[in-house]
Amino acid sequence: MGRFVIRRILQMVPVFIGTTLIVYLLVTQMGGDPIQNLYGEKPVPDNIRATLTAQYHLNEPWWMQYWYYFKGLLQGNFGESIQQGRPIAELLAEAWPHTLKVAGVAFAFELVVGVVAGVLAGMRRGSFIDNLVLLSTLTVIAVPIFVLGNVSQTFLGQEWGLFPVSGTDDGLVSYLLPGLVLGSVSLAYIARLARASVAENLRADYIRTAKAKGLPKSRVVGIHVLRNSLIPVVTYLGADLGTLMGGAIVTEGIFNIPGVGYQLFTSLNVEDGPAVVGFVSLLVLVYLITALVVDMLYAVLDPRIRYE
User: Fold this and answer.
1) Residue 173 burial by Cβ neighbours in a 10 Å radius (0-12, 13-18, 19+)
2) Fewer C-beta neighbours within 10 Å, C or N terminus of the chain?
3) Regarding predicted confidence, which is higher, 180 or 282?
4) Of 67, 101, 59, 54, nearest in space to 260 by CA
5) DSSP per-residue string spanning 200-236
6) Whole-model pTM?
7) How far apart are CA 71 and CA 50, in angstroms?
8) pLDDT at 308
9) pLDDT, tens digit, for every residue of 204-249?
């Protein structure tokens, strides 16, 4: 296991460098003038333009800019936002707790409700519960997340007053509705994935053998069926945790949550390249770390999987 973890960490290094390199190239090729965006319609004084151009290396090739950025990363420096004139690490420290709360609510919602609904549907295929799960999950998947967010905000927030409409003034309660909206689509996929996996394992030979040996139904389902059925679900959940961070861009915008997605969207609008690359670099790290944790969980769920 130790050698496997070290090997995976070493593989993460070129993936991180390659991903941030591509993002930096794309951001620098967007065009536009981030310095002009600071002044809006007003002309930028020549001395200020020259100072900012030199400070952010804007007159140098993109690969040299990336080298300065990467060299700063090695020293724990994410750079500085052109638009806000503040270290990106500070912006990340302020935005990250908001995104973690929204993603945490979404992750708990899709994990508990999605797995339970999928297992019940898989155990009782063709029943009312199975049809209800299939119909409701298909409806959620078919509705775009911004439509789901606005509808939930209108009815659950404004009309019925069950949740705060926007902002973070109400503390943890403020993150409930954005989290439920963010996790709803993933919940639908998890429920369908768990349903199909449970149904397939119930027909497997080892389950028939376990039943023939006279094992209690609770042990057959709780140990043998669920354990193997959760492997694809865990794989999806691991990848989805990173997606929740990036997917929060739309949700945080609708509910006015100042998290990573909101900051990333704002930075893209004002063409603040260093801030965009800094936020994306953090999301890439989240993807890589969650993928590593998921791979390590495989051996726990299925002892037949060995890494050596």
Assistant:
1) exposed
2) C
3) 180
4) 101
5) HHHTSHHHHHHHHTT--HHHIIIIIIHHHHHHHHHHH
6) 0.78
7) 23
8) 53
9) 888 888 888 888 877 887 777 887 788 788 778 877 777 776 657 7
